[in-house]
Amino acid sequence: MKGILVFLACLLAALSPAARAARFACNATAPRASTCQALVSYAPPNGTATATLAAVRALFQLRSHRALLAANGLPLSTPPTAPAPSPLRVRLPCLCSGGVGATFQRPTYRIRAGDTLDAIARGVFAGLITYQDIAAANNVSDPNKVAVGQQLWIPVPCSCDPVGGEPVVHYTYVVPAGSSVAGIAQEFGTTEETVLAMNRMTDAKSLLAGQVLDVPLRACGSAISNTAIDRNLRVPNGSYILTANNCVMCGCSSSTWQLDCQPTQGISSSFCPAAKCGDMFLGNTSSTSSCESRTCSYAGYTNSTSFAILANLTTSNVCNAVGMSPMAQPAHSSAFRLEPAWLRWRELVVSLHVVLLCLGYLRQD
């Protein structure tokens, strides 16, 4: 009876739309450029234990609750027991190696009784990865044979590469049903051509629900020094980040596309050193004329001899500034349903492979 149930579960997975393994190009090789912070889209399954912020933090082994709040632009007063928005943005370290990128060391998952690699990939991690990729990353020769208590690395695809010569924050995005490439591009302030090129798609009509896309999010520029510890800080619109040992909160301004950094409220001033530009404190702005203003801008932090927060006085011309804010989120248009013949054949081959694995399991049961 147990074997029949396993076979039916496998057959159902085989007949459902095949998950498409994602490989994000990540060609950076320089020590500073080959690692970065990327964003991952996660939609907690309804009615499950991962539907709270605390549960999502535990699943992805995030170091702090504040980091999860910052990635989603949520107030710092939001409690861990609050329901998780869907989808939720999760900031994870990304490493480039061999021309592709994957989240570095995290997340991991410990096998429980009744788990299968496919259920972990589709259910626990909401389709961010395929069971084939989990098996390959953990040297699992037979996906049907995993031991309870075994710890697996879940290598979610990501990237650190610039796009069009500009630094971006790469967003690993699971396509919802009813989406279109044009709608996704408009939602995230990029172009349809960029989405197609980055994901090696020849035609927007080949988009599938559940497909994992690499979507570039424009990041704000900054005055951070190249010698600062957080020199690679990148923040996209709609989020903020805590840096300098949580002493500084930096958000992305959609009007200037420059980091807007302020001292973090609620952090002890005795722990956080003051950052000033002459008689101006960090984040303060003064007008020098009707068009020109000066700002005490965040320039990073150092900790070589002692913890210090750096600041520089920057000047901006508001009359000539052209702020390109992200486009408003549109209602998703109907997704194209036509698929090229080669894609349908590939899905058939994958389905047959799953069925054969299940038959092999029954023979051994």
Structure report:
By secondary structure, this protein is α+β, with helices and mostly antiparallel strands. Helices cover 22% and strands 23% of the residues. A hairpin with a 2-residue loop joins strand 11 (276-277) and strand 12 (280-281). Helix 1 packs antiparallel against helix 8 (341-364) and helix 6 (181-187) crosses helix 7 (192-198). It is globular. The termini are close together. Residues 1-19, 321-355 and 361-365 have low confidence and may be disordered.
| Ends apart, CA distance between termini | 10 Å
How much helical structure, as a percent, in the residues? 10-25%
Radius of gyration: 23 Å
* Biggest sheet layout: 5 strands, mixed
Question: Tally the helices: what do you get?
Answer: 8
Query: How do the helices and strands follow one another from N- to C-terminus?
Result: HEHHEEEHHEEHHEEEEEEEEEH
Structural class: alpha+beta
Q: Which overall shape is indicated by the principal axes computed on the Cα atoms?
A: globular
Q: What percent of residues are in strands?
A: 15-25%
What does the oligomeric state look like here? single chain
Widest beta sheet: strand line-up = 3-2-1-6-7
User: Total strand count, please?
Assistant: 15
How would you state the average pLDDT, rounded? 82
Contiguous low-pLDDT stretches (5 residues minimum) are: 1-19, 321-355, 361-365
